Amino acid sequence: xxxxxxxxxxxxxxxxxxxxxxxxxxxxxxxxxxxxxxxxxxxxxxxxxxxxxxxxxxxxxxxxxxxxxxxxxxxxxxxxxxxxxxxxxxxxxxxxxxxxxxxxxxxxxxxxxx
Length: 114
Description:
Blueprint: E1 6-11, H1 17-30, E2 35-40, H2 55-63, E3 66-71, H3 72-77, E4 92-94, H4 97-106, E5 110-113
Parallel strand pairs: 1-2, 1-5, 2-3, 3-4
């Protein structure tokens, strides 16, 4: 029997967003008590925009008690203003996705790259 698990997930390609969301939902169903944080990096941060056509799918993850963050460095790289991120629904912004992932791993989180 597993004890409480902490998992840090990285999604980095908007072209794979459907698979990323599906796998995160599968992870939640398989591990209902786990703390799951997802950091979207590279062009996947576009899926967190207020006007993203399928933002409701990201909201579903938030409703499943999954923490969602956008990487500030990726926002800059993609020329996306932070004000365009749907922070009003609970999406956070971290300075550097790589730093967030490494710090969580050092704290004992399992790492999953999607």
